[in-house]
Amino acid sequence: MSIPSIIVERLSKTFGQHAVLRDIDFEIHPGEMVALIGPSGSGKSTLLRHLIGLTRSDRHGGRVRLQGREVQVGGRLARATRPERCRTGYIFQQFNLVGRLSVLTNVLVGRLGSMPRGRALLGRFSEEERAMARRALARVGIEALADQRANTLSGGQMQRVAIARVLMQDANVILADEPIASLDPRSAQEVMQILARINEEDGRTVVITLHQVEVARRFCRRAIALKDGRLYFDGPIEALTDARLTALYENAGLDEL
Ligand code: ADP
Ligand code: MG
Asked: CA 167 to CA 134: how far, in whole Å?
């Protein structure tokens, strides 16, 4: 059996008095594409941030393992995870590109984590890396935009650049936090199709927080749902019945359904 991509054990996080994650347990295996859903404020982003050690759990707040390596245990971050963290791509709702740099350079930034430190600081990229970046752009369908400044692109195009940057990291695991929440419906659909293709063709694990359950149903087989920081559901998405969904989103704003 292959090593799980992600193992989360009894993960708990409190901000002040507010228990944001409570005893979360799950495993995600290589090649899965999992939707992380739940009302706004249920802890989805906080959970995703814990997976790569951007946030530390409570002192006795459980553990996270990523691709067979400890990321954190009991509120302590493991030092040894850096390469694994580099091989885990993170995609943000707001793209996080450097607007004044070219699209190609933004994609090359994905390479920095795997370069020796001196070369990374100089930001010197080889011809091979540039060719690799152009291939990544071709894969997300925007090779023609390589030399434009990133801040001239549409939201959908910017998110494609962010995905190309993750491809440059050679990431086995891709974590995406509301990657389509700022996009118009058509761009949202295109970005989901690209992520689904990368998952299918490369076997990369994808975990994606989503606002719209309909989108999750269309693209993901498995859903993990949080409610008030607790694991409310984990299973095949078709087992999320209307009754369960109604209960998941009860007390939440109507616009979230
Ligand atoms: P979601 O992504 O599901 O909307 P979040 O993970 O962003 O939820 O937030 C879950 C809860 O944790 C919210 O109540 C939010 O206000 C709180 N929270 C998140 N980050 C912090 C922080 N750094 N300090 C205090 N509270 C936080
Ligand atoms: Mg969020």
From this structure: 11
Asked if residues 164 and 137 have their Cβ atoms less than 8 Å apart, the reply is: yes
Residues with CB under 6 A from ligand 1: 15, 20, 38, 40-46
Q: What is the reported pLDDT for 118?
A: 60
43-46 LR contacts (CB < 8 Å, sep 24+) = 43/13, 43/226, 43/228, 43/229, 44/177, 44/209, 44/226, 45/177, 45/178, 45/209, 46/13, 46/20, 46/21
Q: What residues pair up with 224 in beta bridges, in sequence order? A: 36, 234
DSSP assignment of 71-130: EEETTEE-GGGHHHHHTEEEE-TT----TTSBHHHHHHGGGGGGS-HHHHHHT---HHHH
Predicted ipTM of the assembly: 0.98
pLDDT, mean over the chain? 92
Tell me, what's the pLDDT at 103? 97
Pocket test for ligand 1, best of 13, 22, 42, 46 (most atoms within 8 A of CB): 46
Q: What is the pLDDT of residues 192-212, one digit of tens each?
A: 999 999 999 999 999 999 989
Closest Cα to atom 12 of ligand 1: 20
Q: Name the percent of the chain lying above pLDDT 70.
A: 91
Segment among 150-154, 174-178, 211-215, 235-239 with least mean pLDDT: 211-215
pLDDT digits (tens, 9 = 90+) for 134-147: 999 999 999 999 99
- Helices marked H in the chain: 44-51, 82-86, 103-108, 117-122, 127-139, 155-168, 185-202, 213-219, 242-249
Ligand 2 centre distance from Cα of residue 69 (Å): 25
